[in-house]
Amino acid sequence: MELSVIIPIYNEESTLGELYPRVRNVLEGMALAGGYEMIFINDGSRDRSLPMLLDLAARDARVRYIDLSRNFGHQIAVTAGLDNANGEAVVIIDADLQDPPELIPELYRKLRTGYEVVYAKRRSRQGESVAKKFTARLFYRILASITNVSIPVDTGDFRIISRKVVEGLRRMPEQNKFLRGQISWIGYRQTFVEYDRAERAGGETGYTYRKMIRLALDGITAFSDVPLKAATLMGFTVSGIAFLVMLYTLYSRFITHNYEPGWASLMVSILFLGGVQLIAIGIIGEYMARMSANVRQRPLYFIADTNLPAVAVPDLAE
Ligand code: UDP
Ligand code: MG
Fold it and tell me: Does the global pTM surpass 0.80?
């Protein structure tokens, strides 16, 4: 198998009709000697996506589908695809046609010139709210400034990766996936091509703010200890200030006898200290939660149904 295309699907009934022929035409046009496969992962869609996928699979033998047992989220859906992809090269692409399938041949060509990863970098983004663009920009800049791994800014998961990188990802068992970070971390020769990100072809975003915040926190906690160190630093700074204030208080009380029964200063310091402590505990909590998720070692997802070769379907009875 020369190429696998992984497409996570969450409530995409309005885009599937256009997506499939476009991807198929592009792949047919590439005339791949080794053949290709499209792997659709249904991530617990609540609309007609699944029956549409079943229908595609019945008509086209190169269509594979994996129906997850519920909505596990975009990153896990892609992981399920990666775990079952057979291609020497693997493309990850969104289903909403914001990532143009027509870019796949260019990604593939570039990969063949001696790279292991070619990611698609957004030159511009259309049809997305100012708030989304702003938060995304901000997030990528913050992430870049506090991690050692150079995670490319303004790129999503749209990219092509070689088998070597797929194997690398399979060996990274973390529960909270941030694939674009993990792929950067893996290394080898990586490059990019630029494209203009289109509007959603239909339907609406499956990424609620809640999911976006979770992804952002997963990215930061998996690739940076800076927040933890900042908590420590904050603790030391505040303790230092508190110590000076204490000296001053004792000095006023016993030496100059010039003091007021002041609840203002008291309240301020209690509130300030309380705030700092809560922030620090919160930061530690974020890391702890992820640690405990990794200690639990749960499977990342369950497959309810698939037309993949039987080996790939986990049997719970075992
Ligand atoms: N997606 C998914 N599970 C989810 C949310 C999204 O599999 O819980 C898929 C979705 O079908 C699409 C891709 O992930 O193929 C990107 O999602 P979306 O376009 O909604 O995100 P946005 O482009 O708005 O960031
Ligand atoms: Mg989208």
Answer: no
